[in-house]
Structure prediction request, 138 residues.
Amino acid sequence: MTPEWLTGICEFELPKWNDIAHFLNRANIILLQITFLEWALKWLCERYSDSKLKHISSPKGKIYGYLDLLRKMGYSFDLPGNFDSQLKSVKKVRNSFAHGDWDDVRKEVVNFSYKQFFVLMSELFDTIEAAVTSHKTE
Prediction:
């Protein structure tokens, strides 16, 4: 290895990797959140459904399909405040990530609050739990 080669790595490749790692770490947190949300809703549908779940579909995606199914089972609940807009942002990150559109991923994660989305997911599960509990007592 020549010193010129090492200089090139230090000046170009490592700083570029630090930049990539920064936004990818944020994106991974967001991806884990949406993965957990979809898994948990599917689990709830399987747990409280009388029949075997078939393919869940909705024009707005699987998450809304699971929410619709829970409502069809008789559980009445509302989505938290800006859940729709937050989920839309999360889906943009997921889709851009899946297609390798790194500039779009970077743009989406810069202003996204994964803490706020975590709070929204918690509020959603609180409302679903309240619906399930009140449905059992009826």
